[in-house]
Amino acid sequence: MTDGAAGIKNEEEAFARLAGRTLTSVTFSLDVLELRFHPWTSLSTRVWPEVSVDGKVLTIGLEGYRDELLASIMQVASAATLEPDNAICVVFESGVKLRIPLPPCEAVEDRVTLTEWKCSPVIFN
Question: How confident is the prediction for the chain on average, in pLDDT?
Answer without folding.
Answer: 82
